[in-house]
Amino acid sequence: MTEARTQALLSVEALSVSYGATPAVQSVSLDILPGRCLGIIGESGAGKTQAFLAMMGLLPPQAKVTGLASLEGQDLLGAAAATIRGRRMAMIFQDPMTSLTPHMRIGDQIAEPLVAHQGQSWSEARRHAAALLEQVRMNDIPRRLRQYPHELSGGMRQRAMIAMALACDPKVLIADEPTTALDVSVQAQILALLRQLVSTRGMTLAVITHDMGVIAALADDVAVMREGRIVERGAVARILGAPEHAYTQSLLAATPRMEAAGAGRAVPPSGHDATRLSVRGLRVNHAVSGGAWRRPLTLTAVDNVSLRLGTGEALGIVGESGCGKSTLSRALLRLGPLTAGEVVWLGRPIQQLEGEELRQIRAGMQIVFQDPFASLDPTMIVEEIVAEPLRALRPSMDAAQRASRVAAMLGSVGLGPEYAGRRSHELSGGQCQRVAIARAMVLEPKLLVCDEAVSALDVSIQAQLLELFEAIKREHGTSILFVSHNLAVVRKLCERVLVMYLGRVVEEGPTEEVFLRPHHPYTRMLLEAVPLLDPARGRARLEAFVVQGETPSAVDRPRGCHFHTRCPAAQPMCAERSPEAEPVADAHRVVCLRWREITGQSGSKIS
Amino acid sequence: MKRGMNKGTRIALIVLALLAMLALLAPWITPYSHEYIDWQHQAAPPQLEGAHWLGTDRLGRDLFARSMQALRVSLMIGVLATLVSVCIGVAWGATAGYLGGRVDAVMMRFVDIVYALPYIFIVIILSTLFERGSIAALFIAIGAVGWLTMARIVRGQTLGLRHREFVDAAIASGVRTPQILARHIVPNVASAVVAYATLAIPQMILYESFLSFLGLGVQEPFASLGSLINEGAQEMESSPWMLLVPATLLTVLLLAFNLLGDGLRARAEGER
Amino acid sequence: MLTYTLRRIAGLVPTLFILVTLSFFIIRLSPGGPFDQQQALPPEIRANLDAAYGFDRPLLEQYGRYLADVSQGELGPSLRYKDFTVNELIARGLPLSLTIGLAAALLAFFVGVPLGAYAAWRAHSVSDHAIMGFSTLGVVLPGFVVGPLLALLFGIYWPIFRVGGYEPGVVSFLVLPVITLALPVSAYVARLMRNSLEEVLRANYIRTARAKGLSSREIFLRHALRPALVPVISYLGPAVAFVVTGSLVVESVFGLPGSGRFLVQGAVDRDYPMVMGMILVYGVLTLLCNLIADLLYAWLDPRVRLT
Hints:
The structure holds 3 protein chains of 3 kinds. Chain A is an alpha/beta fold. Chain A has 21 helices and 22 strands. In chain A, the strands form 4 sheets. An 8-stranded mixed sheet of chain A has the order 16-17-18-13-19-20-22-21, sandwiched between helices. In chain A, strand 11 and strand 12 (297-310) form a beta hairpin. In chain A, helix 4 crosses helix 6 and helix 13 (382-393) packs across helix 14 (399-412). The two termini of chain B are 16 Å apart. The longest helix of chain B is centred in the C-terminal third of the chain and has 38 residues, at 177-214. Chain B is elongated, with a radius of gyration of 22 Å. By secondary structure, chain C is mostly helical. Chain C is built from 11 helices and no strands. Chain A binds chain B through residues 330, 333, 335, 359-360, 362-363, 365-367, 369-371, 374-379, 388-389, 392-393, 436, 439, 443, and chain B through 164-166, 168-176, 179, 184, 187-188, 271.
């Protein structure tokens, strides 16, 4: 327990939640002091959300709640607690898209608690709503008030949710995974906003998250939860710097860090035959309906991208949503549309291949997807799933040979023979992903594309799978194309990296080089947005975060350099001319008109 | 298959099995045929110990025998018409959903337009296209329009499935398109298809009964539950059992199918 | 919203066209002709009749002439009731059919929606099971079973309402037919509403509304009702179509002089203009109802207006 010299604002004692015989929360006790932020960290299933839903009285009727919880001495678990909800205690949730009512305007949703709890008229309340939107730094407020949730971007929706929660000036705000569904740059903005609410308004904040970086950015005190219990608690500096409990230590160890040693420099491929994959000028266009009577528009998802991948090399492709990285990876695997450009695989151009020829080369290039459950056919057992590529492309193998190969593959991804007869709904996310990897590797491909392959997994599982990819790279010499939005993960696995924005490559080079000496303003922004695990430095960096706004829609890309609308170093010429790739150093290239001037001014390393 | 998780579903299944058995075995249970006219017992009320368990109709034909024959006809038409719908509907819907794009647009536009037409009229017209009393024609007429809903459902399911990652994975593994349709798409829509097919059977039976009631369906001396109800409705003041027997039979039949179908549908949706 | 409406109305025209065309060719190509039912006619008289009605012309020409007539609202002469045009005959029966149909539709909606909403609100309780039980029964019982039963019960054993035939202005004749017609629709609507509302109440945005501390009433009216109504509105089109066509049965069972019988009789008699006329009239009605349902749907869910 934290030393309570001042009276705790929110006090919880031996709180337990169970559903029938299954416990979700087991005897949790904690205090939140006024004006401080408590961070609750744990992996999925830890019970962290359940505990706070119990405090808010939002659990379904079949949940059994025991224990005590009170806000400023007032009981939260009884029937009288209904008056506190939304007024003195508010909560925001993970997914703003589904958490906002789709058929109500934003302004009305924000105004609603004011009308309901403070008896304001609707016009009064809407004026208040505008003021609230200002506090959360929303842009173009009069328009936003009248818009519906689906017309707003992710970050704006989350701001609207925060404004809604702040409407009645609550004493405590509970934020459940507030930034998980957002791009990293938007995440930085929202984290900065939340931190500012705590420091300037004296708001008391409880943040639930699975991300250590968010803890470092926001929390003053930390509680670590596992399987319904709190296993460790303390001030944030101590928890992050000198954790005592084994679980906390393992969580921190599994979290990939930007400061740690990465994959190192790649040995430059010797000779031309070492290049397995060569992509030149790849372009992917989508036709999008322009609306009722207008002609269809062209959305350029991938714009003139070129890259090279050698034997046993891992190339990371990073960028935020809408940058085209997934479209790119599917196009070069010939799983998705490809409008123009050249893809040369093992010396052979494949962009025009069709039919049987295309089928045959598929054996050499495989993919692992983001969603582990959707990757496996729910009607098939594991054995059949892993054997399917063999049946399709190795018809000469008989059943016995297939069976032994499947068993070997399962073993190599860490799954024993007892898994062969199971179906996807009997497996965990991590296990499903292992099956997907076994299936991808069963044909011994020379290229493995990982499309956000670890993004949907808990941090400890993530670390295990990264090791698996590392082993695949080392032992089989498989080339890996690793698509991810998580820079720290990319740093751990990939020797080279490609940064994309709105369909274009903006910077590429050896990972260490690009991450330590970024030359493109967007790359810098991405790096600065990654939350550090050092609270003091992390917060200072958040406050200095300068890039505003969000990625524009891909249908309406800005002219000239796409990034100029958000770039702190933009000049008029950036809107007129499109930059070309220019070499910075050996194998390090940047696509910016002003990179020389920018680096000259503040060319410091990211420390 | 974990059948009948719901008590109601299980009961429905049992009832259906019983009815089917009864209908099939009736000729061996009752001494009367559905045509035999018993001059001594015309319009006789039901007598459990007596000759006619459920009574007779206006002409003296045993109601139990007639009802069982009608039940056979209704079941046969319902099941066959549904089978026709399922075959056409699944093929149509899966193709449209998987191929997507223009093919899908054209195929589903056709479905939309035919769907917008007053269904019952098409059935009436189609049933008059053939000679009166042709049972085969009847169930083709009914089933030929019933595939629309099935096509829509299958197409919707296929659209959702096509973009699931395991389909992409199968393509990346080199599996050919017919294989993908057969091994991945169809098994995954199977539970939805079975559920809706079970719900479609009572629909078909209802339409057939409706046509028979109007005089357009099954003709003398054969009966369907609909025509029996029609006769019974005309005599309901004097001989209410003539209405109540087929009406109850039809109701129980439809109820059982609906309960079973609902249970299957709940299970199919739970799997998604 | 306006552009969406106009687009939808424009979309009706091709559908109507196909409706007319399909019906025309199907009924024409079916075996048997309008004059087959009567005694065998001598060939010359037969030829004269054919010529008088234009049946000796090529089929396509007949089709063209029919289209021209229809576009001016002329549905042609009845072949069965020789002194009347189809317009006249339909006009006699249509008002009654429409009255019954509309009354049934309104009844179904205003009974079904509240019942379903209540069942969802008290999900898994005794009331919920009771309402759903009623719903299952209502969906399953066909009109031609319920009709006679109701007539037996409330028309003959306990004569509360009058049955059999119709006297203009006497509403009592219409009560049981309307209830019979409304029953399956209201049962289905209740079930739709209940399942839809139950699903909506589990949505994330309802959790947010609860977190805002709103009362159950506020949540239901402002946040849950509109999305929950969506499947119900989607069903409204087919529902009204069902009611409109179902009046066939009800008119037959209760002996009401509506327009439904003209269709069935016309199909049997091969009275081409009559059948075509009925199909057109009912087809237009159905399409109109679908249109209104579509527009309501777009009003409820702003995202649909983009399509």
